[in-house]
Amino acid sequence: MRTFSKITMLMVALVLMASLISCGAPKAATGPVTIHVLTMDQAGLKPAEIDQIARDFEAQNPDIKVVMEYLGYDFVHDKITTGMAAKPPAYDAAMIDVIWPDEFIKAGYLLDVTDRVTPEMKSGIFPASWNGVTRNGKVYGMPWLMDVKYFMYNKDMLEKAGFTDPPKTWEEVTDQAKVIKEKGVVEFPITWSWNQKEGVTCDFAVLLFGNGGAFVDADGKPVFNNDKGVEILTWMKQTVDDGLTNPSAVSSDEMAVEADFLAGKSAFAVNWLFQYSDSNDPSKSQIVGQAAFAPMPVFKAGADAGIKGSSVDGSSSFAIMATTPYPDQTWKFLTYLSSNEVQTKYSAEMLPIWKADFEGDNLEKLKAATPTNPVTVPAFLAQFPYANERPTVPYYNEASAALQLAIQEALTDVKSPQQALDDAAAKWIELAGK
Amino acid sequence: MTTKAIRLSQRRYSLRQKDAQIAWLLVAPSLLVIAGVTLWPIITTLVLSFFIAPTGINQARTFVAFGNYLEMLQNPAFWDTIKRTLYFTIVSVGLELILGLAIAQLVHSRPWGWKFLRFSLIIPWAVPTIVNGAMWRWIYSADFGALNGILLQLGLIKHYVPWLTLSSAAMNLVILADLWHTVPFVALILQAALAALPEELNEAAAVDGANAFQRFWHIRLPLLRPAILVALIVRTVEAFRVFDIVYIITSGGPASKTITISYLTYLYSFAYGKQGTGAALSFLISIFTIIMAIVYIRFLYRPEETQS
User: Fold this and answer.
1) pTM, whole model, 2 decimals?
2) Is residue A10 in a domain?
3) In chain B, which residues have their Cβ closer than 8 Å to the Cβ of A247?
4) Pair (A266, A411) in one structural domain
5) Domain B81-272+282-306 superfamily per CATH
6) Between A and B, how many residue pairs show a Cβ–Cβ distance under 8 A?
7) Do B143 and A405 touch (CB under 8 A)?
8) Do A247 and B54 touch (CB under 8 A)?
9) Contact A195/A202 with Cβ under 8 angstroms?
10) CB contact under 8 A, B271 and A78
11) Do A405 and B159 touch (CB under 8 A)?
12) pLDDT bracket for residue A112 (50, 70, 90)
């Protein structure tokens, strides 16, 4: 009896061990192929819309199943890094922000798709979009979203304060904000995304270039700590001290900026395109019909130096992950996702990347396609030409983190703006040297 | 011993040996799994910490021996982070102990509804840390938060305060959020220990004229020492390694004032793509926690007390 039960236990243990081993064995590739795609739940299309696109694609391609995964923008980068550590990778394709290709190409994450791009795609899509995914003549992704930061304001609030026109310079913005605050229209007229994440670097870029400044010079050395950079950081801090910028901006991301603007808690809000269509959605917004676009202001000093406009490029693309077992199926889905028919269908959330949609009769069709397009299309055409790029270096993530810390330290009185920016510039030089 | 007795004891010994062999054989599969899931990654991380290892596929690795460790130990930002983490750990664990002990005493004294009190303690502990963090992030929200709402209604503030942007307050707010989640754990451990204490000592002391505080300080507390030691070690190690609540509530801000050592490790490993440095940092964390555990055991562990 004792020997029998010992043998039984041994058999049970061996069977359990065998089942564990077989857990890791790869499944044979029969039946429909399933591809996993990671993207952000922030700018661009909403998850429900992308899910619908995936279902439409599956209906046309019954042998491919698409599983989408959505994360807040700030989490996507690290999810891609951890996902790529698996074999096969956790994702077959992922949304790549405009600032990531250099880092990811160096890490070997992105598949070279130069030979997959057809001449129609090459000539049909805006060159700026292709620039975002091309390095050394090789293409590493399919463009998807063109986005810049827009200057949006609340028409009703400006009217209440006695202003007929939106401000053209940042100095006018603060002047109007002072009046809006004094008249009691709203307590903190301006709101920003200055939390210690990429959002603050984007806002800083908008202001920096609008003052005639730049991140780096022609040799790639950091110059954001020169007088132009220090001026705008001092200006940023001053608006908080004067009670014009909502003090919660120091801990806000772009979603919090939208929450403030849509709740009628600010008169001016710099944000990506998604904020406008959301502002007219009665289920989310208390300011339906009150939001308007104006060209992004510049500083007087920048205007004098010839700067006509300033914004920051926040475009994104989809890339095939280099180690995916299904590159062909993934490319099929990505080209469908970025195709003209899909993009024009959902143009209320994001404007198409296809040049032809903005020409002649197509432009009128595009403007009429959704209720918000008559406003967003001209705003896009006016603002996108002034989209500035953040530095395209492989160590961008760590460099931007140093700049984010510097801005936060200046805003929270830990260091003077000059000292903070100097320390960040020193870090950039250190990173470039490694 | 007689020959028969010797042979009998030898037979019993070899039977025990056979039993032991079978036992090892049966345990071997799970030992293999444990070795694969925990031991192997620990070894590979240790090896990784001796290289400069950028994230990526087929990336070249440069052997630097203890270079990563030295780089961190010589970096003032590393020591700032350790200071912050120690502040979090000491304040958090200290308050948990005091509050946990108070709640445990309360439950132990069996007031009306004590069963419900003990049951309701489990709820904060059962809430996942991420959910807890998200909830407190909303409570602290500058424009929509419950904290601002309550303080304004009580007349303690004149207008909404952007709590999470105040560098002095941010860490304390994260500690508060963590306390709500973990005090129940300490309270339950201590309450279970209290319930196991012999009441006769307490009653004898009361008869001899000791007041409540003297009874608590000289009798209950020393008897609780093993349980307190367990709670202290577990909570100190967990508090030193805090990550998810910081990630969700403040993302390390404002101005990096809430970046703890685990968060720094995460940044180096995943955000900056420097796996070698991240691996070295994670071993430095382990070294710190081992030192803390040794200190505790030195000062608090009395073997004779655990044998009662």
Assistant:
1) 0.86
2) no
3) 142, 162, 165
4) yes
5) MetI-like (1.10.3720.10)
6) 114
7) no
8) no
9) no
10) yes
11) no
12) very high
